[in-house]
Design goal:
about 25% strand, 9-stranded mixed sheet, 6-stranded antiparallel sheet, 2 domains, about 30% helix, Conserved hypothetical protein from pyrococcus furiosus pfu- 392566-001, domain 2, Conserved hypothetical protein from pyrococcus furiosus pfu- 392566-001, ParB domain, alpha+beta, globular
Length: about 400
């Protein structure tokens, strides 16, 4: 079972005309270059720490964080608390609300009864995040975890701390859970849970390595985490489409190669393709080429088990590995919006896009519990857990 504890958070102390919007950002790995310029224009924005490295050296980011503390721009809570993080947003025209519980999670590796992964990771990313921890001794960003039920959140009485609305129209609200009764109730309830990592595999694995490197310092054995219930109505998973470039392949040549494993059916337009993918119940993939051709891809054989049913797995095993990896100069990019993926392909940035359906949460759990891992970039939980509302200081 997981060990999830309250902690003495570092929280922003706003001065003058500052707004909480000036201090926060999405996770470091989903920020565009244009967004980064805007966020870093605010001197105390969290990106000045999380993306403040110099060729992997975060010592300057550490000194910057220390100056924020000494200058009173961040203050440490007097007691250990949990926090409630609420996000309200529109999804397909429906107003949804998602509640997350923020605390620190014991970083002690993976186990079927504790913390469970579902995706593969990139080693170079973990090295960079480890350097950030070494340079700052602070968790500035939260991993995102799922547990099976958290109805106890309905009976707590938190106090509001911050509220803002981001550029995507998502409303963010952060509350402090200060009642000792509520804190004890949360600790007891979560001590019986196991947790699936929804987002933040790299950060969790990095935290585990950092904990092993610092066995005599218990504070360094935990990672900042936000936990959401699997039955939360605001838990949304979006697809991650693949964009393939550097292939120098003509449409007809591509179709011949794909016809080995897929039955091909031409769609009249991108919208027609997306509708037919929806109607297939997640069975079919979509192909969109640089010339604007839209093709429905139906696998000729069903994959085995939960992993084999995933679009990301079908794409990896039937397209990326046999077709793309065999050619020189290939590159793969990702996009969570089908229209954006098609536009980037049509303007010539890529040769073709493989459009996928979002995985079902039940399938993600089934894959994870079978001790298997989904391909990298298989899931995209929305909205993202924003950074900068609370930090976990490990000293």
């Amino acid at each position: 079972m997981v060990e999830f504890l309250p902690f003495r958070g570092l929280i922003p102390s706003l001065k003058g005309n500052e707004k909480i919007d000036d201090r926060v950002s999405p996770p470091y790995d989903v920020i565009s270059p244009e967004q980064l310029v805007r966020y870093r224009s605010s001197p105390f924005n969290v990106t000045n720490i999380t993306l403040g490295g110099n060729d992997g050296d975060y010592s300057e980011a550490g000194r910057r964080l220390e100056s924020w503390l000494s200058g009173g721009h961040l203050v440490q809570e007097p007691e250990p608390y949990f926090y409630l993080y609420e996000q309200e947003f529109l999804e397909d025209g429906v107003l949804l609300n998602r509640k997350g519980l923020v605390g620190v999670l014991k970083a002690e590796g993976y186990s079927p009864d504790g913390v469970i992964p579902h995706e593969e990771t990139f080693s170079n990313v973990k090295e960079d995040r480890l350097n950030l921890l070494k340079g700052t001794e602070t968790h500035c960003e939260s991993i995102f975890g799922l547990v099976d039920e958290m109805s106890f959140l309905n009976s707590i009485s938190p106090e509001k701390m911050f509220e803002f609305r981001d550029e995507d129209g998502v409303s963010h609200r952060m509350y402090r859970i200060h009642s000792q009764h509520d804190i004890d109730m949360v600790r007891t309830a979560l001590s019986k849970k196991r947790m699936l990592i929804a987002d933040g595999h790299h950060r969790y694995e990095t935290a585990c390595r950092y904990a092993l490197e610092n066995p005599r310092d218990p504070l360094k054995g935990y990672v900042l985490a936000t936990i959401v219930s699997t039955d939360d109505p605001g838990l949304v998973v979006r697809p991650t489409h693949r964009l393939v470039g550097g292939m120098n392949i003509e449409d007809e040549q591509l179709l011949v190669a794909l016809s080995l494993d897929f039955a091909l059916s031409r769609a009249t337009s991108l919208d027609d393709l997306l509708e037919r993918m929806r109607s297939s119940g997640g069975r079919d993939l979509g192909l969109y080429t640089r010339s604007g051709m839209s093709i429905l891809l139906r696998p000729k054989s069903d994959g085995e088990g939960a992993l084999g049913s995933l679009d990301a797995y079908k794409c990896e095993e039937l397209i990326i590995k046999p077709l793309v990896h065999r050619r020189k100069g290939w590159r793969v990019a990702y996009d969570h919006d089908s229209k954006s993926a098609a536009e980037r392909t049509r303007r010539g940035d890529y040769d073709f896009a493989i459009l996928l359906s979002a995985p079902r949460l039940s399938t993600i759990w089934e894959v994870a519990m079978s001790s298997k891992k989904m391909p990298k970039k298989s899931t995209y939980f929305w909205p993202k857990i924003w950074s900068g509302l609370v930090y976990y200081r490990m000293k």
